[in-house]
Structures are given as structure tokens and as C-alpha cells.
Specification:
alpha+beta
Amino acid sequence: MKKLLVILLICLMPLKVNGDTIMIEMNSGRILYEDNAYSPKLIASITKVMTAIVAIESEAYTEEVIVGDEIDTIVCSCIYLQKGEQIAVQDLVYGLLMRSGNDAAMTLAKAVGGDVDSFVSMMNRKAKELGMTNSYFYNPSGLDEGNGNYSTAYDMALVTSYAMKNEEFRKIFSTKKYSTRSSSKKYTWINKNKLLFTYENTTGGKTGFTKKAGRTLITTASENNLDIVIVTIKIGDDFNTHKRLYQRYFEKYTYQQVLDENDVEENNKSFIDGKLYIEEEFYYPLLESEYELIKILYNFKNQMEYKDGDVVGNVEVFLGDEQIHYQDIFVSVEKVEESFIDKIKGFIDKLFD
């Protein structure tokens, strides 16, 4: 009863977030909450989400590297690497995400890109590939040196949603404590993301701060098949803000199945005799008041002949007037085994073609 009352109070209280904020359900891409989410700002160490996924996807990820001169100019936060020590690239990514190691970022950049500038180019190519149209990276750490790294809350939610599809990234992002050993010493790191220890639904996160950028924070959390990412920029009480947003929106939304693979066959009003199918079922986060606003349209092609695996139409899903999903409809045609006589006829026909 007490827990129910707390949830009710959370839902009734007005929730005002002062700063750049976005909240996205990662599976569907639905934006649940946004406030000034598309204005480029300095982003500090949440930069390292991009640094990490570029490193994880590289061929160098399974290798070891010798720490070199690249760490000479680094300003900490650091994991306190020493020049000449040999350490696994994978361990550097743990130190990068868990402790925001700027020395780890520079060592990763050299290990993966050959040099820092080449690695930064890789970061910007990945940003372009992901549709991060208001982002530009100048370094792998997020320090404000030179021009600093600029992005938006929305763009950083895009790269985090992408990275969370990578099993290795998800594992590191959610790690609370990690121990490892290099060629010269042992490391033990505790994650800087406080929500991992104070909010049970948390699945990961990355902190950031510089004097110019202010506080920046990315966190992810999951409940009842909803997987949510929140990005905030220049918000002082960011951990509590993220927690309140999660509590509010996990309570408001449910992850509903909108399309079932059997729905297509049941709506086959055309001449198509084969079994119709879609390649994936479709789920979407919905408010209870939105259930009746869902509309599904099935469109079938007017064709006389088709073969197994042909696209024979499409299905569109609307929430009110907004299209939220589209996918092709395919047909499965039972293959008839060719008779012995037909095989001979076919062979003869080919001889005289």
C-alpha cells in the first residue's frame, strides 16, 4: 500500500526538467520526453560512449597495447596508466566507461586509429553513419581542449541506443566493479554511475563534467520490456532527475504488441493463395489512452503471378495520423516437386533452346 501511494504521488507531481533533456525508448525509437534536445552543446565525457563503441567494433579490440607518449598531455580524470605498461584494449574500455579515464581514451585512440587524429575521424564517420547531424568530435576524451566536442541530447541518445545493441558494450556499461591486471600493476574500478547502485532498473550510464560543459549524463534503464535511455546536459541534480523520469514514464507506458505474424494472414482479402508473413512482429510503447488510436492498414499488390518469398504488399501502422511503422508482406508458396516426365521434358527443352 505504501509503495502504491509513492507511485501515485510521483505520477501526480509536476516534473519540470531545466536543461537539455531527451528520453527515448530504444527498441522502438519513440521519444517519450524532450526539452531543447537538438541544440548543440559541449558534452564533456559522455563523448566516451562514441569512443567506446568505435573501439569495441575495431579489429584492435582483442589485442594488447603498450602505453606511450599519447598520455603525456592528459588532464585527469584518469585510470593512472604508466608509459611502457602493456594492457588489453578491452580493459582500457572498462576504464574508459567506468572511471572516465582520459588516459584510457588517448591510449585507445592510438591503438585503434594508429594516431589520435585518425581515430577522431573514425568517430565522426560513425556519427554521420548514425544520423548524428548536429555532432562533431575533436578528441576521444571530451575535454574542452581546442574546440571541444559538440553534440545534442538527441544525437547522444542515438549513439547510445546503437551501442546498446552490442553485447560487449552492454556488459561493460552495466558493470559495477571490475578488476584486471596489466603487465605492471593491478587495477580495481568502481563505476561512477551512481544510479547503478541506487536504482535497481538501471542498465548502464556515463557521467561527464567540465567547467565549460557543466554536468552531462547518459543513463539507461529497463522495466517490463521497455528499454529507455535518458540524456541530460547542464542539469545540476542529474542523477535524481533521471531516476524521477524513469519512475514516471515506466509507470505511464506499457510495451504493447501491435503486430502479430498471424494478423497478416487473417487480413488477406486478396487473391493470394500462399501463406502470407512478415519478417518481424512489432511492439511499441503506448499510453493507455493511445490504445484506441492505433490503426493498421494492409496493402496488397494486384499481381497475377508470384513466387516463394515475393513481396506481395505492405502493412502500415498509425498512431492517430502519424505513421509509426512500415514493413513488407511476403508470400510463402508451397513448392511442388517436379515429376520425372517433367524433368525429362525440361532437359530436352534446354537441349534445343
